[in-house]
Amino acid sequence: MTAASWVIISAMVGCNALFAAYEIALASASLGRLKALADAHRRGGRAALAMKQNMEGSLAALQLGITLVGAIAAATGGAEADEFIVPYLVTAFGLSDRTAQVLSLACVVVPLSAVTIVVGELIPKVFALKHKEWVCLKLSPPMRALTMVVYPAVWVLEGTVRTLLSWSERRWTPTMEGHKAEVTEMQELRAVVALARTSRLIGGQEEKIILGAARLSSRSIAEIMIPLRDVVTLDLSQSMSESLVLAHTDMHTRFPVCAKPGDPQTICGYVNFKDIVSELRLAPDQPSLRGIMRSMPDFSEELSIAACLQRMIREHVHIALVRNRAGEIVGMVTMEDILEELVGDIEDEYDRVPGHVAEVGVGWVMGGGITLDRLEQITGVQLDRSRLPGGCRTLHDWIGAHLERLPRGGDIVRAQGLRVLVRKLRRQRVLEAQVSREDAAGGVPRSAAMASSTAESRA
User: 156 and 70 share a domain?
Assistant: First the structure.
């Protein structure tokens, strides 16, 4: 082979390497990252962003270049084989012309393919994957110029690709069973965060916060609000002392106030528990809550969690009402509810339920926090866990699962061989309950029976 042939083939392999490297770098680079580089006025950033935003045209130009240089290299090698290798094989080994041509092509194609695969494909692609942003910045300007030069051919290829893709997608679209469609940007964020955690740049909690924050804009406050039936309210007609007693039993900090007793649709504001205590000290004769009541904003249930958080921060409030399209109050959202979407459940010292056990007569007085395993061990009753919802681990959870609502004082649950009387509550959580076996001789202790009959007659 002549020196000119070696130069041409080497140049074509080199061009193939550039095209292959740029193709993989452009495909793997993030659109958001390229936009950031362009906004930072990095050299080549605008060209890279333009090429990324028009991927069909960019890939068409690159594929055209790869095909062209491959054809030139193959033609050069084939011509050299016919001119030098075929005569040598015929003269030296006495082969026929057809056999010599086949062997000469094999002698050129096999080494050329090996060099092209290794030098023209694998090495540049691996390098581009590791340094995709650098490759995009350096090669985008000349590649963009090439795209403009071959624009007519690119336009034809791009139009053909779009037409065929549109036709095929109307008939069949690949989907993954069991997986919901997810926005591309969210997929990229999830991949980046997972990589950061794998690289130990962040921990599991930080990963949860980042992904949770990204979902706040796509979720409405209706998904996290406290239903109206579970909202603890005070009445405007109540005295300050009565309000203090009721507020103390529920251990919340802020309480909505109803203008009409017991009607949550007439909520006109809220009071802070600290204000009640302070007002009783400074002005014990204050007749009602009106003097310390604060205004309470209300939001549409369709408002996103992110927008709700911004407004609550801007208005310096921690609770807000949620209304439906008809203007009716359907619930309440708190700052704590929003933060729990980022970091998980937040429990304070009043959210913990005790797990004590005391034997009383033929039954037991148990804390709502006692585990179901411990409950089975003490009572000797084997509970059917298959009937219980997921996450049911404590006596409080067991009671709620059977009531299918928030428990109230005096509630009685008879299920799975147990009789449970709710005795004490705090923040709608069972602090203490009277537990006995249904088949226990003599029934339950007299005091529990009296409480039970009172609760049943009240119901």
Answer: yes
